[in-house]
Design goal:
By secondary structure, this protein is an alpha+beta fold. The protein folds into 2 domains: 73 residues, no CATH class; 396 residues, Outer membrane efflux proteins (OEP), CATH 1.20.1600.10. 70% of the residues lie in helices and 9% in strands. It is built from 15 helices and 6 strands. The strands form 2 sheets. Strands 2-3-5-6 form a 4-stranded antiparallel beta sheet, with no helix packed on it. Strands 1-4 form a two-stranded parallel sheet. A hairpin with a 2-residue loop joins β5 and β6. α12 packs antiparallel against α13. The longest helix is centred in the middle third of the chain and has 70 residues. The relative contact order is 0.11.
Length: 485
Amino acid sequence: MFARRCYCAGFFLFFPAETKASRLPLDFFVSTLSSSSVKTTSALTKVMIKRTSSHMLCFCSHYCCRVLLCVLALLPGFAFSQEPAPVRYTLKQLSALALEYNRGLLAATDQLTAARAGIDTARAFPNPELEIVRGSLKSRLPGVTEGDSRAVWISQRIDYPWVRNARISAADAGADAASAVQRMSRNELLARLRYRFYELLRQDAELKATRQDELLMQEIAYRIKVKVETGESPRFEAIKADTEALSAHKLVQTAELRIHQTRSNIQQLVGTILSPNFEVDGSLEDDSALLPLETLRADVLKRSPELAHSRAVTRQMESLRNYEHHLRWPALAVKGGYDQIPDSRDNRVGVMFTLPLWDRRSGPVAEAEARVSRARNEEAQNVFSLQQNLETAWQQWQIANSQVTALHSGIVKQAEEALRVAEAAYRYGERGILEYLDAQRVYRAARNELIAARFDRQVALIEIDRLRAAHDESSQASKEVLNEH
């Protein structure tokens, strides 16, 4: 390649063009430098021999500028550097990147940090209150000593153990709820990313299939056009073939647009670290067996972050209800200090009670009871919804798996065989173009149904793993893969 560049650069340097009619196009020179074809170099040699006499006349006029251009042409990568190859990512690599750069997940982590700080707030004891008063004493009657006076008092509110324990218990439950929210965010993020990953794989398969259809229809249209020109086929067949070719080209454009949209969705989930032309490395063909429904139901009830969040919220509301009940106790504070005048000092110690005579906290207690009832009902509803969603996803996986087995083992192969027979019959003139196009359409529909069935099976499996928090367990393995990558 470098030798061919030197060859072309020498030609471009020593044989400059004199007139517009004899000038070599710049596109021809650039394509020759970047081409690896021997045929192109041979053509260039013929042009050199033919135009040697005319080009030598204006050698001096263009020599200086062409020396500079040829030097730049010999530099590696100048104007001929190819675009960098797209980076291919596996699902684990994309998951690790999403866990590190997704802003929504980082916000959930900050919420968990704040909830844990709330535990320290709940554990804190009330601060004492210090009161200092200074003044002056002046007498209005004889015999009273005048001078400065002051008073110092300190009070400490008593935090009942049962009140403090209820407050701490509510803060602990709030931290558990925040932790469950973080797990929910991580699980939802990985589930959406996995869905987009397999959606991109499906669209790549559809694009590959539609491009094959487009090339085939273009070839058929060309053959029919030749037959029409020679009078072997009617013009109607050419019109029909051109229409099918245009339809296949439209499907290719639609598939390319869908791939671009799905890549944008993956970039939104992962972050700006992904290049726009990235590719995914994976397959829709997953023949792994699914666990029994009873085992999956037990896993969902045990490991679901949604259910863990509901249970934590219920515990938090119960602790807050107990806290409101305990606040009915009279508030107690210990107070002590002294009053000092010029000729005496009075030391006193006492207690203060807040008597719940007018406000028995009936309103806050009733609100706390209602929140507890609401949390319990929502928890029961979540259990029922999770079980129903699991059964639905399990049935969808069974249906999709049956469709994949039927299409892959029978329908697609039969449609492909019928297409092969129809193509052979059309080539030998035994069948018309309409029969062949019908066979092509049947095969295309069966192939697209197989791709869609494999994708539906993956979608059902993604939903099952989301319900049982299987994505959350694979996050640590994804981080290890990122470090290795």
